[in-house]
Amino acid sequence: MISDAHMGTAYDHLVSEESNNFRVHTRAYSDPDVFEMEMRNIFENNWVYVAHESEIAQPGDYRTSAIGRMPVIVTRSSENQVHVLLNICRHRGASVCRDERGNSRFFRCPYHSWVYRNDGAVVGVADRDGYPEGWEEGIGGLVMAPKVETYRGMIFASFNENVPTLENHLGALKTYIDYWFDHSPVGRVRLGKPYRAYFPANWKCQIENSTDGWHARYVHESALQTIEEYGSRGRTVGWPGCTRGFPQGHGLLEAERNDVPPEVGEEFDRHLDLLRDTYGKDKAEQLYMRRHIALFPNLHLMEFKFRVIQPVAVDRTIIYEYPVELEDVPDPVNKAIFRRIAQDISVSSGSFVSGAVNTDDAEIYSRVQSGLAANKLDWLHLSRGLMREERRPDGETVGDRTDEVPQRAVWRAWSKIMGNGHGA
Ligand code: FES
Ligand SMILES: [Fe+2]
Q1: Domains of the chain
Q2: What is the pTM of this model?
């Protein structure tokens, strides 16, 4: 076993890369000290997705969210500014806002009634005459994330004042993010209300899995058989496609769209026609590929849904899945998309609410976690496709659809950040 004495305070040695083997130490999934450093170095020091603009469209709108384990409120102030505020009262630390979302100019702490404006300023203290003269000077309001930026309606925040720009963080992945949002002819989406689930495993099990093009044929075998029996195409074996990795830790799983089931096929054809009219044939066909886009560390743009990862403890994670509505498409198209993600009729999108696919994955994550908790294995091996991984000058890596290219991209970035605190 690797010891902390050997590593000092950095954990980059938990990832080992040789020309013919790529390994990750099991402590990276199971050690609470590693988890503590991840929360500081990855979640509090870099960019983290916190909300989508459609959730706080009007002045006064807010929604609660999290940056790692830090509870935050994402607000749109009366001046139309987006703020990300720590949801922790300056007085004695109670969470100030308990609702998932709403509209208000003020937040009143439920414990002793301190009142904050939706830009974080403290504006009232109950029973003020019980405090010394001049006491309120310098108290400050709700702690505000110093960096907030948006891209394509996605709101990202960082508690690191010196974090590199969001542009830098997204890097070459932006091309694929643009493809994803351009499923709407005006390039915009609206998020619905999320479905939430816990699983008893490390958060990185999910980040590894969302772009894993290899596991479905095994883990989801029975779900896929059921899907086929009921008339939809569910098999993924042999589909052309690829995997991509990016130096910031992002990844991509890409495959041709040949699984549109008959019950929604007509609406999907209409959608493709609309995209051709809007963007031309070539771009429309590029857009129409199936993509799972993993934005490191906590957002996945799956097919027509957002998946958000919230780590809770080294062996506990919450997943939120938001159905997505495309702006400016005919109603039946959005309805077909929703039917598709809600009724368990495809491999990647059938995991919503009642689907069998997410539960398959969660079962596997818990098996991984309980296995690793035994502390009897040192290294895990993520070398699939290592010998054929194409490395481009800008750091992007490309491999076959079943290769562990996106997973290695996660771990290479993780290793950098956990070694010196800064991303690629
Ligand atoms: S903890 Fe918020 S007012 Fe006391
Ligand atoms: Fe899966």
Answers
A1: 48-151 (2.102.10.10), 182-420 (3.90.380.10)
A2: 0.92
